[in-house]
Fold this sequence. Notes:
By secondary structure, the chain is of the alpha/beta class. It is built from ten helices and 13 strands. It is 33% helix and 14% strand.
Amino acid sequence: MRGVRSKGGRPALPGNSGFRLMHDLSSGPIVVTGGAGLIGSALIWALNDQGLENIVVVDVMDHTEKWKHLVPLRFAEYVDHEDFVETIAEHRNYFGDVRTVFHLGACSATTETDSDYLMRNNYEYTKHVAHWAIDLGARFVYASSAATYGPLEDGLSDEADLRSLRPLNMYAYSKHLFDLYAARTGLDKRCVGLKYFNVFGPNEDHKGDMRSIVVKAFEQIRATGTVKLFKSYRPEFHDGEQRRDFIYVKDAVAMTVHAATSDATGILNIGSGDAHTWLDLVRPIFRALDVPERIEFIEMPESMRPKYQYCTQARIERLRASGYTAEVTPLADAVHDYVANYLIPGRVLEPSEHGATALASS
């Protein structure tokens, strides 16, 4: 199953002028697991904008409408996630001379309590895909998670000793286990794992309670004119000034494409490198909607308070050292683009002539 050949030659990555690419994405078929999800569909959008269409999309279609994310995208084949892993186990070269594998598929619900399911879906599945890809000699890029850092706050380093980390939920632990497995077996020297921080942007509508605060705040403002945020219970943080490293999905996928084409191995943080307050995040929504700012601070459930993080900030020195030079989209600009050009008109990402990190026209 060779699929559609890509258009054009070596892709020009935004922000990396003069940096020698180590891997050519146009050299063969590309597999994207989780391809209908937030990061996966945005990645295909970015690849399409670089003329790449020889893509095998792997996912599971559930009762959500994430299938709509795939409608405008261009790819060679769609395969169910269970059929995919069974097929590659029996016929290693069934999808042709695969040269790049982006493994982004997983259960990403931090509230999921079925540990057996998470172990099979997030850990064992990743091992199968990783060994298949590396045995083929393909570039293997997989999604880890910033949740693996557990309760740590501020300046979270992708050079930290993995054995020192203490994830706080089963989802994070299932991702952390593969990071440990890759390090223990030496796979980490032959692939790159991406610890995504707080990614938001178009094509996250299917995520239910796991949608970003941008979407939830947008819906609250349209319905009531008010956004509700949790109060702070630490005196050094005023209400609404708890901080997170928010990263727009367009920047996250530009970093992901770079990770695949560079010679980076091991773990890379995918974040903005800055910590912004919840107020920084929601105020641009009011401006995009052209309505008065109304913010209400509410009590945080007592069950959340002991584990609540007041500041997370990615250290992205390793990403920069690997050759990624693009500026991160300013948070206010990213939120405005998302609200004005996607949430208000109800649009999904659609390939165009624009580059992967270019903001949609207002």
